[in-house]
Design brief:
alpha/beta; 11 helices; about 50% helix; seven-stranded mixed sheet; 2 domains
Length: about 250
């Protein structure tokens, strides 16, 4: 029997990954809301992967209470994710997927572009997703930050600019001046959060590739206002000027 996998959080994305690992022959042990991770870890201290699929708003609390047995086996898939998020909780070398598919209630999985995965469990995740027809690719650890920044740029730009334009991601991009202004401020914030220079051109290319792959994707959702609030908080903490983000907040929040 293949090694078991723990999945923390069994929402829509947790369900997709559970089906993927089961399809690849791995027993799946879920940790649902209200369950104790420590109790599950006492029974299963050495899973092949402890994949955390909770939303970004819940991630910090989960990492703060992560059982020590799982710290070397963590998998992360959240939006707006950067190394500082796991380093702050003493997690080193996790498996990280910059997920480019979504699953909403009552709908099929919508895949935009292949999902890059880095870390010790990358092959495990790539193979599991392949078992349910989702394309993923293993990347080197040195490529991870660029992959995460490109996804963050896409999510934040289309969500925040979309608060003003509405419509689809392609319609946001058609408002090129607004989209580029939002994107430039987002990248300044990302660079601060990364703590090192990032390749702006590569990040923009990744965003454009995703827009072109699924031009009719909706630009905003329930998370958009919270993303804008977080971006402005990060900008304020870093002393970064973000006049376009602030103007959208003044109109939308």
């Amino acid at each position: 029997m293949s090694e078991p996998v723990v999945i923390v959080g069994m929402g829509e994305m947790g369900g997709v990954f559970a089906r993927a690992f089961l399809g690849a022959g791995h027993p799946v042990f879920p940790v649902t809301r209200g369950q104790s991770m420590a109790e599950v870890a006492a029974i299963l201290p050495d899973p092949a992967l402890a994949l955390i699929t909770v939303g970004e708003d819940e991630l910090e609390g989960v990492l703060a209470s992560l059982p020590p047995e799982w710290r070397g086996r963590v998998g992360l898939i959240q939006n707006e994710l950067l190394p500082r998020d796991w380093i702050a909780h003493g997690v080193e070398g996790p498996t990280v997927a910059s997920v480019w598919f979504e699953k909403k209630p009552g709908t099929a999985v919508n895949e935009i572009i292949p999902t890059p995965v880095a870390g010790p469990g990358a092959a495990l995740v790539v193979d599991a997703l392949a078992s349910i027809g989702i394309m993923a690719v293993a990347i080197a650890g040195s490529e991870l930050v660029d992959a995460l920044v490109a996804k963050n740029l896409y999510i934040l730009t289309v969500n925040i600019a979309g608060l003003r334009t509405g419509g689809t991601v392609s319609e946001v991009w058609e408002n090129r001046g607004l989209a580029e202004s939002v994107g430039s401020e987002v990248l300044d914030i990302q660079e601060h959060l990364v703590g090192a220079p990032i390749d702006h051109e590569r990040a923009v290319s990744g965003m454009v590739a995703a827009i072109e792959a699924d031009p009719n994707h909706g630009a905003t959702g329930r998370s958009a206002p919270r993303r804008l609030e977080r971006a402005l908080r990060h900008a304020d903490e870093a002393g970064i000027e973000a006049p376009t983000l602030q103007a959208i907040a003044n109109d939308s929040l």
